[in-house]
Specification:
Length: about 80
C-alpha cells in the first residue's frame, strides 16, 4: 500500500471521479466494489479526505454502492469512521 500513500502524500485528489469504464467513480467508489480491498485502503482514503457522500457517475455514493454489492465490511467502516453514523 506504499504506492497509495505516495500518491496521497503528493497531493492526489481522493475525490477525483475517474472514467471507471464510463462510470465516473472515485477511488472510494472503486474500493466498495471490491470487498477484499477495504481495510487499509478505505481507512487511508477517508483519512486523506475522501467524501463518503460524493455522487459517482451512476448517481450513487460509495456507501450506496457498498450496500448494492453487499460489501458489509465497507458499509461498517464508512459508517463508523470517526464515530460518525
Amino acid at each position: 500500500m506504499e504506492t497509495l500513500e505516495i500518491f496521497l502524500g503528493a497531493g492526489a485528489d481522493v475525490n477525483e471521479l475517474g472514467d471507471g469504464e464510463g462510470m465516473g467513480w472515485s477511488p472510494l467508489h472503486e474500493c466498495m466494489l471490491h470487498p477484499h480491498s477495504t481495510g487499509f485502503m478505505v481507512t487511508q482514503l477517508l483519512h486523506w479526505g475522501a467524501n463518503r457522500r460524493l455522487l459517482g457517475g451512476n448517481g450513487l455514493t460509495p456507501l450506496q454502492m457498498a450496500r448494492m454489492v453487499r460489501n458489509y465490511n465497507g458499509v461498517r467502516m464508512m459508517r463508523s469512521y470517526n464515530g460518525e453514523e
